[in-house]
Amino acid sequence: MDIIQDTISVDFLEKVFLESPLSTRWQFLMMAIGSLLMVETGFFPTSVNFYQTEVAFYCADGEDVYGNNSEFEDVCQSSCDQFAFNYTNMDISSSIQETFKLVCDREILLRFHGTCFFLGMLLGSLIGGFASDRIGRAKMMKISFLVKTVCGVAMALSDSFICHLVAWCVVIMMNVACWMAVIPWISENSKKSRRHSSVILAGIAFSTGGMLCALVGILLPNWRHMILAMSGITLASFLMSLALDESPRWLWTKERYAEVFKIIRKGAKLNQCELDLDLQSTMTKLSQQGAPNRKFYQEIVPDLKRICGIYKTQSYSENGAQNTRDKQYSFIDIFRYKVLTIRMLLMCVLWICAILLYYGVFLGASLFDQNIYIYVVVQGAGGVIGSVLGAVLLSFLGRRRVAQAMTFVAGLSFFSCIFIPPHWEYFVLSLTFLVRISMELFFTLCYIWTAEVMPTVVRPSAISLASMTARVAGLAFPFISHLGTVWTPFPMLFYSLTALLSLIVSGFLPETRGKVLPNTMEEGNQFGVGKKKKKEASNDPAKLESSSSV
Known about the structure:
By secondary structure, the protein is mostly helical.
């Protein structure tokens, strides 16, 4: 029993599998499947650019009337019952504006379609990490793809705008929930030296999905056909996700050793080698003492009860210690630990700065007075370069230095735009290109850094909380550009100060490059703490008792 207990108390899983050559081919296979699945997640968010476009409309027996034309009000105030839409010089042949007759007094519903996009992102950030902590990362991804397939078909075939909106909101919600599961899954299944590269690869895959969505839009200009085609791609992704294995690290924290042993045997088979007899014996004993695979309601209900303050039941082993398998964690537990609380708050601030700066440049064609087509192409190229560059910089400079360097570049570029003459448009375009590269890297870094700082038992929940906080702050983004009506340089100054704030906040977070990821709440609370303070915390009975009571 002592041998088994010692095995659990050390980083046994990393030594015998995750960081050993035994897992190399298994990790490569899982990363390949995961990257292909990330390509799919770039389709639906990008597709909105094709069918949510405002189209010029006019009365069927009248003259053309364009969006902000002076004759626009005359058409809406007339008794015209049938409208026609002008798709001249457009790459689409239909839109939801025409399908659901979103004109005149109903035109505001077209903008509400965009509101549902952000609402879906908020809900996905809220439930994604919570659910993946309870039912597993791989299972959350599988559910996401299946639900997106059904709702995607509902979007394409529905004749009700309300049904279309609900289905659209659910699609985006499950898309974000999938992100909340993918990032921790990749971080937990990668070797320490390749962790950041794997996450960067996922970001490149997402950008690739966005570019492929443009190809689908060109081949299928009818928006219903395009959505159906993407739903077919999502269905193929769901079938591919069935080959995914659950995160061994997550299974280990749940004491589901039998399932971990099954994955280790699979890794040995892929590497065409035999497992050590001592390892087999140890894993067999662990499997017999481990927790069984619990049902969904067995994982969710206790946590919901505890959030409501009515979950009091705890079970203990023969020696009086509380069984870790009965502990259920959520983001609420983060705020029961001082160090984790401070870091979580700093991460939320960092995420808010990241999303404001990211959308500030990504949707800044009008702010920077640029040609929208050239601007979108340049921004897309900056996104790909930023992802590739991140794989290199994060290997040599670490998280903190890269974060500070990228925010410095972004802040200096925004501040420079205040003094650049308006007719230097190509110079401004070059600066926005640099900002997009830095923000693409910085935004991806926020996912990586949060996943590495927070312990395994609350990792997706922490990412979900930080992402949700950032999405709420992102709702204020449309109002930032209006600051220019008060004082023209105001938006640029705001983004410059936001970049400065993120640069300062980055300095208070620990460096995680090449470090062993914390698994338990106690390990996370001591992660990156100075040796002297860490020793004092571990030798202080009061602190230990306080931690165990949590």
